[in-house]
Q: What sequence folds into this?
């Protein structure tokens, strides 16, 4: 079996920074796309950022220039560096990975709250 475990969420003041991590564990044969989604209360889940195995990235317009997605293929781990956080970034953040052989898997989610 495989699983994704997220960490790094929490409470931060506006303008602050957080770094989320997503570690894939189990029988991992490789990971294609890794992505971060978020879901604010009462809203649909939305794509925040994605990164291919080759390092190509894609960002939602609302986070461009503030968030950076990266990955360490040797550690089967993805990251989301979030800077200049705003109250509207408050949401549960979910990691998604397209795993070779296993297919798409989701993490359990981590709460990010931006408030003074």
A:
């Amino acid at each position: 079996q495989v699983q994704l475990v997220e960490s790094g969420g929490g409470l931060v003041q506006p303008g602050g920074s957080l770094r989320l991590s997503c570690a894939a564990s189990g029988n991992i044969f490789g990971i294609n796309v890794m992505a971060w989604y978020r879901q604010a209360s009462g809203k649909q889940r939305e794509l925040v950022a994605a990164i291919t195995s080759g390092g190509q990235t894609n960002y939602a317009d609302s986070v461009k220039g503030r968030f950076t997605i990266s990955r360490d293929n040797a550690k089967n781990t993805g990251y989301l560096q979030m800077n200049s956080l705003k109250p509207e970034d408050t949401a549960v953040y979910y990691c998604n990975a397209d795993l070779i052989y296993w297919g798409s898997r989701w993490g359990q989610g981590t709460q990010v709250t931006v408030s003074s």
About this structure: The chain has a mean pLDDT of 97. The radius of gyration is 14 Å.
